What does this fold into?
Amino acid sequence: MAHLTFIHGISNKPAAEELHRIWRGALLRAASPLDLDAEGVTSEMVYWADVLYAEPMREGELESASENLEMGAHDTEKVDIPEAGDPLERAWIESMSDRMGVDSKTGEALEDDETRLEGDGASAGTVASDLEWIPLPGFVKDEFLKRFLRDVHHYLFNSEFTPRPGETFLVQDEIRKRFVAAVNRGAAKSGPHIVVSHSMGTIIAYDCLKRVADCSGIDALITLGSPLGIDEVQAKLKPEWSRKDGFPSSKVAGEWLNVFDPMDVVSRLDPHLASDYRKNGATVVEDQRQNHDGWWTHSLDKYFRGQVVSSRLKSMLGI
It folds into this structure.
């Protein structure tokens, strides 16, 4: 039986079951509709928002606010900029902040930061400059930037975090445990088994498939709106990652499809992964552009509903 392992991205989310239902529903509304139940395809959501956020978004809020969900416009929980434990960590925070175009102490967007386009969606600007054209209040954009920086930092540095009284996690350890357990359950199915990851979930999926020995193998990997092209992210995936041999060959038996929208602020700094994740020097990752409507093109709903993602996922599943 074919199986999908989903993993969500940055920022807070509805409760796990609700989010899983929404992802499956988005595929039903796709350009090439995919009814997982009718096709006998099972799926599981790797849910990790509760590791970094005190309580889930209210039921139904994701669908009513899909345009600005990841920006925190409908979430009252505020996020602080991470504090460094040592000079190397401080240097990473400052470098990543510069990459995003924000003040490393406040998380607020820096002024006079202009975006310069470099080819097929790539940007020589920053996340903050790319947000300038999005019609939302500045405090909402600043909150998104803080979430982006905080969530990625806490995972890559395995920070200790207490989202609620009485619950403390080592962030990377906990999320790795959840992802590996889900992939191992999926590996017990007859296959094909595909991991579909979005946003920061692509970092988690790659990290586990490349760097965690007891993570089972999969048949294919899909990354959507991925920040894996950012230098500071790649620096924390070493020594296992290298440009020449970054493909997780021992765990991904088939293809790696990377889909991006050229105006997606999360992936836009470097949306093309093929040159950074080669297999023994050979280019094997397939980068595919998919254009979305509206001003918030990072939305998982838009990725799932697009022609590239929906048709390719069906092909991978043999449907």
